[in-house]
Amino acid sequence: GEDVEQSLFLSVREGDSSVINCTYTDSSSTYLYWYKQEPGAGLQLLTYIFSNMDMKQDQRLTVLLNKKDKHLSLRIADTQTGDSAIYFCADLESGGGADGLTFGKGTHLIIQP
Amino acid sequence: SQTIHQWPATLVQPVGSPLSLECTVEGTSNPNLYWYRQAAGRGLQLLFYSVGIGQISSEVPQNLSASRPQDRQFILSSKKLLLSDSGFYLCAWSARGSPSFGSGTRLTVV
User: Fold this and answer.
1) Mutate which of A36, A101, A103, A107 to test chain B, going by most B C-beta atoms within 10 A?
2) If pLDDT is split at 50, 70 and 90, which confidence band does A112 have?
3) Helices (H) and strands (E) in chain B, counts
4) A43–B41 C-beta distance less than 8 A
């Protein structure tokens, strides 16, 4: 079945850039999402990219998609303490609906002062 | 604008007791509704989804069940909780776009 892989932890210094990587296996992906989960809270949609795009930028966030290698990354510029959270990559198969979403296990972003 | 409410936020229940978690959505009609479970180190697992009143699809066989008595209400239930049911339960809704999540319920079965 469909699989989405992420590293479990990433540690960066405050002010540096964070790059969170994700690989997926589904060839029929339509959208790829990044969600943020702060401690004890639900998931908040951060950004998404359509599968025919290579890059999407939104303020401090840059999403890069390499469809050939099935690799997605989220870059957070000037990382702040408020960025400390778990970041989930999710892949939506063609057909839509959250029943078609596959989540990675999440990457814990740890910010060092 | 649409909002999703989920309660309670935390719950501690003994093994063998029943469970009822509720989720409601405001500001939209006929949403798709979902229950996910997040267990430590295991990511998000889709448990149930519903495309309409009374229509429930189960993704994972277990001792949990879901019901949708009204268009914007989704309930997760169990007759007898197991220790393995502990986790963080998230309700979500979607129309055509990405799903939006509730704030979650931390369930601890003791």
Assistant:
1) A101
2) very high
3) 0, 11
4) no
DSSP B110: -
The per-residue DSSP string of B1-38 comes to --EEEEE-SEEEE-TT--EEEEEEEES-SS-EEEEEEE
Least CB–CB distance from B101: residue in A31, A42, A96: A42
What's the pLDDT band for A94 if we cut at 50, 70, 90?
A: low
Quick one: average pLDDT of B11-32?
95
User: Can you give the pLDDT at residue A1?
Assistant: 60
- Could you count the other beta carbons within 10 Å of the beta carbon of residue A60? 14
- The amino acid sitting at A100 is G
CB B104 within 8 A of CB B8: no
Would you tell me which residues 63-82 of chain A have a C-beta closer than 8 angstroms to some C-beta of chain B?
Answer: none
| Residues counted in chain A | 113
Can you tell me whether residue A81 is helix, strand or coil? Answer: helix
B15 close to B81: Cβ distance less than 8 angstroms: yes
β-pairing, A71-76 vs A18-24, is: antiparallel
Query: Which residues 6+ apart lie within 8 Å of B68 measured at CB?
Result: B33, B50, B52, B53, B54, B55, B56, B74, B75
B53/A86 Cα distance (integer angstroms): 33
Q: How far apart are the first and last CA of chain B?
A: 38
Q: Is the pLDDT of residue A54 over 90?
A: yes
Look-up of token digits 């892949």:
A91
